[in-house]
Specification:
CATH architecture of the largest domain: 2-Layer Sandwich
CATH class of the largest domain: Alpha Beta
Largest sheet: 5 strands, antiparallel
Structural class: alpha+beta
Helix content: 25-40%
Radius of gyration: 23 Å
Number of domains: 2
Number of strands: 11
CATH superfamily of the largest domain: Impact, N-terminal domain
Strand order of the largest sheet: 2-3-6-4-5
Oligomer: single chain
Strand content: 35-45%
Length: about 200
Amino acid sequence: MTQLHTLAAPASLEQEIRKSRFLALAESVEDAAAALAFIARVGTADATHNCWAYRIGQDYRFNDDGEPGGSAGRPILAAIEGQGFDRVAVLVTRWYGGIKLGVGGLVRAYGGTAAECLRTAPRRPLVDLAEIRFDCGFALLASLHARLPEFSASKLEERFHAEGAELTLRLPRERLDDFRGWLRDLSRGRSEVRELDPADG
């Protein structure tokens, strides 16, 4: 599988195509709500069209905002995918300059502006993260905390109870099996790792 990237910082690109001005704005987003909030925030009320797309894993949406169907949002989405990005939203704003571009011209203008914006943007590789939950006895907590950096694990939650604590961690999926094995050895089989579905919260 090709390594996917997200944006390391917001990006923008402006160009004029046959007297119409096109402005692409792109930002890294973690979920659909963040993508829609970004689009609402950066859309320009006095523009002719604010067309957009986002992709977050298998979740994607696009919008032509009054341009002919398939001429704006889908080419923006294709630019996100073509540049190897995920967890990214792109909005391309157009100020009409008086010359009609036709559907083919619009596809090239919207898709091209989005692609060029992303091509030159700072990127960072996406790491597939897993969230896990498990119980850990009091006697093992210090050892556990000391070793978390070794697994690139970050602690999301720690709830204490009579025997110890229930911990929720996030770590790279590629380290999950190593961590599971190490914890099993540390706890002599008493700590069982459960992987969480992000939708469960």
